[in-house]
Amino acid sequence: MVVLASTPAVDHIPLLRSPDPGDYFSGMPVVDLSSPGAPRAIADACERFGFFKLVNHGVPADTMDRLESEAVRFFSLPQADKDRSGPAYPFGYGSKRIGLNGDMGWLEYLLLAVDSASLSGACAVPSCALFRAALNEYIAAVRKVAVRVMEAMAEGLGIAAVDALSGMVTAGGSDQVFRVNHYPPCHALQGLGCSATGFGEHTDPQLISVLRSNGTSGLQIALQNGQWVSVPSDRDAFFVNVGDSLQVLTNGRFKSVKHRVVANSLKSRVSMIYFGGPAMTQRIAPLPQLLGAGEQSLYKDFTWGEYKKAAYNSRLGDNRLAQFHR
């Protein structure tokens, strides 16, 4: 953490050392979803890093570009117009404040509810028909990718039931969320050797997160030795995170990855993230197929609803699973 005298533009937002070329992650696991070896490669990446880059995913570039364009158009609106789409409690437009527990970031965002494979009808934001259409087209496509990835995870783990994991996302009542983040350039810190925190370090509580961004870097992940590394941007690829719930379902075999975003001083970053979660009543406990003879669960039993409540009552950087460890 960098500590400087605060400037009005970034008051109350933590500062970080600006990334340099040596910070980029040279060992990034890259998985070709169309390859027969994808299940084993995915399982290996989830065990080693809890994170991987996904290529040949099948989502048309036009679908991704259309949503990005509509998102840029929305975030370019006058502030008063955007504020009418908020606050993001629980869904809608938010700016700088992340959640209700004091976390701050150099970003603005839309947090949206997903019902099956499209925006929930109860989610009135955004009101623009073109934006909603672009969102629904993209959400349907990326959800299919998430399901394929989770099916590959099951195969890579040696689980016979192909839908052992993906079925928790496709089942009725599954708790899916979609987020569009915009990190404006932070010109006030240009040349100072530090950057504003865009989104503070955290793990995702759900099962799986599938992210796509524009060509601006900023995403960082923590390796298991605690070292932070920057993820090279690739607007044609997806980046997949293991979430806390998936870590528990695999009894710690897959690792929930800690990650954060560092704001750029010169360029905007736009990212779109699909979060796949189970139904509120879904029991989260290690799958019996993954427990060896005599192996015990590392975690106390809980439902997704119980864990979600605990997660959203915490700070971003808290170890949310700690209270559920045996």
List keywords for this structure.
single chain, Jelly Rolls, five-stranded antiparallel β-sheet, 7 helices, 24% helix, 16 strands, 326 residues, disordered N terminus, alpha+beta, nine-stranded mixed β-sheet
Task: Outline the fold blueprint.
Blueprint: E1 15-17, E2 30-32, H1 38-48, E3 51-55, H2 61-75, H3 79-83, E4 92-98, E5 103-115, E6 118-119, H4 129-156, H5 167-170, E7 174-183, E8 194-202, E9 208-213, E10 219-222, E11 228-230, E12 238-242, H6 244-249, E13 259-262, E14 269-279, E15 283-284, E16 302-303, H7 304-312
Parallel strand pairs: 2-3
Antiparallel strand pairs: 1-8, 3-12, 4-5, 5-6, 5-7, 7-14, 8-13, 9-12, 9-14, 10-11, 10-13, 15-16
Helix pairs in contact: 1-4, 2-4
> Multimeric state of these chains?
single chain
- The structure class reads alpha+beta
CATH class category: Mainly Beta
Q: Shape, please?
A: globular
CATH architecture group name: Sandwich
Look up the CATH topology. Jelly Rolls
Mean pLDDT comes to 95
Number of strands: 16
- Radius of gyration from the alpha-carbon trace, in angstroms: 19 Å
- Tell me the CATH superfamily: B-lactam Antibiotic, Isopenicillin N Synthase, Chain
- Count up the domains: 1
- The fraction of residues in strands falls at 25-35%
Helicity, in percent?
10-25%
- Number of contiguous helices: 7
Largest sheet: 9 strands, mixed
